[in-house]
Amino acid sequence: MKKSLRLMFALLAASATTYGQAKLVQKVTKTGTELVIPYEKYVLPNGLTVILHEDHSDPLVHVDVTYHVGSAREEIGKSGFAHFFEHMMFEGSDHALKGVHDKITIGNGGTNNGSTNHDRTNYYETVPANLLENTIWLEADRMGFLLGQVTQDRFEVQRATVKNERGQNYDNRPYGLVSQYYSKNLYPYGHPYSWLTIGYIEDLNRSNVNDLKNFFMRWYGPNNATLTIGGDFQTASTLKMIEKYFGSIPRGPEVKPVAVPAVSLTANRYASYTDNYARLPMLAMVYPTVPNFAKDMPAIDCLAEILGQGKNSVLYQTVVKKQLALQASAYSSNDELAGEFVVQLVPLPGKTLADMEQLYRASLDSLEKRGITDEDIEKFKGSMLSQFINGLQSVSGKVSQLAEYQTYTGNPNMTASQLKAYTSLTKQDVINAYNKYIKNKGAVVLSVLTKGQNVTPAKADNFTVDTTQYKAPNYGYAGLKYNRPKDNFDRSQVPPIGASPVTKAPVFWQKTLSPGVQVIGSENNEVPVVTLNISIPGGRLADAANLSKAGLASFFTAMMGEDTRQYSAERFAAELQKLGSSIRVSNDVDAVVFQVQSLKTNLPKTMALLQERMLSPKFTQEAFDRLKKQRLESFKLLKAQPAAIANSVFAKLNYGGNNVLGLPESGTEQTVTNITFSDIQSYYDNFMTANGAKVVVVGDVKEPEVITQLAFLGKLSNKKVTLAAPAAALPVAKTKIYIVDVPKAAQTQFSVGYGNNLRYNPTGDYYKAYMANYPLGTDFTSRLNTYLRETKGWTYGARSTFSADKYAGSFAFSSGIRAASTDSALVALMTELKNFSTNGPTAEEVTFLKKAISQGNALRYETGFQKARFISLIQEYNLPADYITRQTALLNSMTQDQLKTVAHQYILPGQMNILLVGDKARILPGLQKLGYEIVELNTDGDPATAGN
Fold first, then answer.
1. Reduced to 3 states, what is the DSSP secondary structure of residue 407?
2. Do 846 and 930 share a domain, yes or no?
């Protein structure tokens, strides 16, 4: 890549310039076009690393504190501590008691969260710029003053919450435990990557509050942390705040890098397990590779793409396209200590897991025969350049990148060098990586078996984990003491919140093109990227004319991703990837949508490909038969997922099986079976029209260029498409419980609510309902989430929402609840719904929601996607340009009594469908005591019969 950047890079010696307590050790500025994130890096005397990146494009800041500790600092019998402690860091500190963190950040329009992986734990907030000092104060307080608030009660609640998180993300989903099983067979016993970051339930059960306190004292010192801030601030004043609030926190024990031997397998290790939810078996093969940022990492990433990503991949061509497997893919992941190369195959009926292994081995022969081509490298480089650029669209993306580079390498300025490592890749590099890490190398070969089906593993298990050589690490927990900081100011004084920043909605332009194409656009040159959506009338509502073929519009969009007259599907994908562009076709309620993203320099070539896609599809019987077979088999996968079951059955309860809104977007086994090859061409002929088309474009492009690029739409038909509005939601005479049985389910998936007559209107009844529901179930601080998660520990998360579009509306509560607490949680839910419907929000809640919603505008228009969402609503609903101003006026004028009236009108606890997807044998006895009528359904939402 041609460079035009002069990079100022200062590494200062011991006599470096200092600013108060902080020492400036590195400064990077950008003067050209090379991808670089400008910043200043400081180190405080207590060892805290500080990275500051000024970005005044939006009135917000993103604050990230990354601690260099993850599950890699754990040991056998004590897994999951790092992640568990992440939860405890949200339980309050001495000066910011439980709930204060959320009250300040969420309550003033911001967001906050945290995450844990093998190697680090981070805590972050995106907030309006006037909350910067408050956020620094909050993060400093939990770094220095946490342990006084770590109580046994809070420990127990969060332990239960973590168990629910494990149930929701791992134990209660198909293939959720694949990584657990292959990790314990891939890594030596005791290796910190041999267990999931979330840990084992038995380890969580045996842990105690003192274990957690020791973990904090050992790893959560400032010398093991990086504070990174990006956004709308001034460096000098921000540094003073950091010195004030973090400077007195004592240095923690010294932290040395984790050192473990590289993993190497001398032979294939065969293992298997039976999955409680999977309806189709799976074969996973995992090879050990290299740590993050290793020299061979780009080559291995490229190899994974060539072998198993996209329509040009070897696995797709040799296995999926030939209808020998439903899915076949490969990917590479890299962590601080090791990397993994993972291949996964899901067989079609009639094929065994042994067949999948044989097919995979044959695909490697095909790879060697075809070799690595120049085009392989060109495609990979194009996609990586696009990925790097898109990662810079948001302040949070830039801050996360700086923090990651600093934590793992000690140098935040890795963006350009990492991009160079990828863009300088050669064919020989990839061949070398294949020979070094994959060819004739040992792997874990994991067979995922299905319960109750006659499925045999690829080969018999042949490996037993050797536990005899394990020696527990000495992490230095003995004799740790809590050194509480000593300040020369009153830390209990909450910093004042400054004036709300002025937020300006994106400036946009509108134009109508012949024949009837409505275009709306907004120029944004922060990054050289263009995002464009074209909506053609049709979509799900087009299916309403013939429900026996429901899913046709969705099937059509899949076919529109296949061959064109000029290009095969594979050639089309290759051309896009070389440009670093994407064109996706999706199905909406009343439109088929072409979603385009392109680097600015490649927009003309991308639009030429879009024109080919839209005007010249080539529908083939071979592609139709393959996609139909895959689609029919995929229904089995969906029916193995409690959340997916709940979504489809809940829609059927609310709208009925004779309403297109009551059927899955992709149809059902029966309706898809009814779709014929001729239906695809018929859909194109009847619905692909420019009349009524809508275009939304945001990015580094001016209006005249957009209009020129869209001229080809005039070649589409000018046929007027009339879509019939769907029937109204079914009335609910009385509240009933509906159960779908998923035996042995660790959680019960709740979907509770009803369809209503609300339609989307951001300055009308819909927005009033949104405001009324805010304290009940919208954000983390809501009543339902606070009680069900934070007070009782029954769930990982719970929420209620009003949703609406031009055609339908609904109210719904959703959550995955611990199975044993199903009846108790339902009682609590219905009690709160009745209370809120009767009494509405409190005065304090009304004040909170007004601040949270109004100041949240600072975060509303940052990225291209957000800007596109804003202007698309103006176009779709014919909103006035100042609708945000009107919305704000409505928000400010709403009273507690008015919101109470709205709550009573739209939250109807006596007229709701209660759908519970879970283990009937476990939950039914408790539910039978609650006095509701109970109806049992199958996974299609029809009345269950004996044997279902």
1. helix
2. yes
